[in-house]
Amino acid sequence: MNLSNKIAVVTGAGKGIGRATAMALAKEGANLVIISRTMSDLQSLAREIGNVGRKVLPIQADLTRESEIKGVIQESVSKFGGVDVLVNNAGIGRFARVEELSTLDWDDMFEINLRAMFICTREALPQLKRKDESFVINVASLAGKNAFSGGAGYAASKWGVLALSKCLMLEERDAGVRVLAICPGSVDTHFFHHPSLPKPNREKVLKPEDVAQTIVDAIRLPQRAMVSEIDIRPSNPK
Question: What is the pTM of this model?
Fold first, then answer.
């Protein structure tokens, strides 16, 4: 896909992988709808996107509210006339052993990591299917393939992301909607600082820009080619 003047919607765009992906798409010529809970993060990102000459619509939204997700897609269509690329990046992590993990933390992870992704995708699909080609990128995790102590809730939600992505790919590939689940390993984001997670060498873990570039490279493939799943991990994190 040539991203020039395409419309890309990115959730969780305020920080980390979402922010880096929004900038990478803008540098390829896309116009952006950026979504986050924190308006100050969106405003600074919007300035950066504007500086590379692209249009941008920042939307502060709570993705646990279905009505706000629907509003995001409606605003995107009203502002730009449609959606070409959806990047479902918003996600949270609450890490604790099963006997110590609260129901609230479990529910929060599934609401943001999986339920919001499902609703965003469902609401965007009519717009995506109007295009000759379009793309859904779901940011999963290697935690969605590998169990680890203290990660039951997070890993389970990311396993769900992979299942959702595979079903969506099978349902919509004939409509020209390509679907990619990307599974990063250790990335230098706010997750890196969680006290219960192991601390690999920060100089050797992935940067958000590495994941963002991988996403852009997958989108830019010819229409006849679809990469449906990518694992990306540090070459040597030790």
Answer: 0.94
